[in-house]
Amino acid sequence: DYSQERAVVNLQAANQLETVSEAGAEEQILLSQEESFSRLKSRQLFLAQTHAQQLHSAFAHKAAYFAGNILGDLHYADQRPLLPLAEESVNQPVLALGFSAGIKNTWLFSNETFLGLAGYNGHRTELSFVPDFALTLRYQVRPQWEVEAGLSFSSNVGQSYYQYIHGRFSRKDISLNYIHGEIMANYLSRRSWVVLQNTLRLNSTIGFYLAGLNNAFESIEGERFDVSHNYQSIDYGLILGQNVDIELPGNLTFSPGIRLSWGLPNIHERMPDLPEFMWKTLNRSLEFRLAVLYRVPIGNK
Global pTM? Predict the structure, then answer.
């Protein structure tokens, strides 16, 4: 019996030793794993710190490089003249000389004209077309802006009527001749078109004219009378126009367009014995004009 009990005790002791041994092994394994994780974290932290230092060093090197370039450029810029804008360096002033010819539909707006348009008492106002010629000068001061001047030594305006005169239905023609000068600002469109190797560009005009009376005549059924004393010596007004500039080979520009002239003052002399509406006269015209110009680039930029 004693030997059996001894064997049982030994077996229990062995089992307890085995259990303790397994627990110790597990504890050692856990300690080993924790140590491995700690080493791994330390390694990752070391690598991260090393990478951050490398990035910081590279960024500092790049920053120093770019800063050096900028300072070098500024130092170089201080030693050289400033260049103009690209647009101004390419475009240069252009002087264009030539002539223009046109057909004007002229109107002398007066009481007679309105009675004829209304057909009062058989009166009739006729359309009047007269030729016009002028010398033309253009100076392009900016890529989109020109100054234009024109001069005509003999510019005609007039009006024709059919009305009863001394009991007879007669034709009456009024013709005024002026020396006519004009000054305008032209705006050139930014957009252009190429047609058959020629450049087309819109040219919008606004300006002012001043005219001095050369003579004035009135004709009734072919019989002519000098009526210069009935009209003011000076006329002036506004100009609006739209052209299409066609740049041709050989520095030539062909510029067709339309132009509206709007006279501002009453061009008829005062007639104290009659109410103003009976003699007030305003000069207006609508013209189709063709200009031919030779372009001369001037100056260097």
Answer: 0.66
Strand partners, 106: 128, 285
Distances (CA, A) of 26 to 17, 30, 92, 235, 243: 14, 6, 93, 119, 101
The residue with tokens 């103009």 is 84
Nearest to 283 by CA among 222, 234, 249: 234
Tokens 């132009």 correspond to 259
Cα-based distances in Å from 137 to 151, 186, 295: 9, 12, 10
| Helix (H) / strand (E) containing 158 | strand 145-165
Could you tell me the CA-to-CA distances from 44 to 37, 47, 184, 291 in Å, in that order? 10, 5, 80, 84
Rounded Cα distance between 292 and 177, Å, is 24
Q: Residue 289: enclosing H or E segment and its boundaries?
A: strand 282-297
Beta bridge partners of 182: 150, 209
Question: Tokens 């740049």 correspond to what residue?
Answer: 247
* HSE, side-chain direction, 13 A CA sphere, residue 162: 7
How many H helices and E strands in the chain? 4, 10
**Cβ partners under 8 Å of residue 18, min gap 6:** none
Alpha helices in 78-162 (DSSP H): 86-90, 111-118
Retrieve residue 187's tokens.
């705006």
For residue range 16-52, list pLDDT tens digits in order.
555 545 555 555 555 555 555 566 556 656 655 665 5
Q: What is the pLDDT of residue 6?
A: 55
Tokens coding 89: 């360096």
Strands 282-297 and 94-109, how do they pair? Answer: antiparallel
Tokens of 108: 């002398």
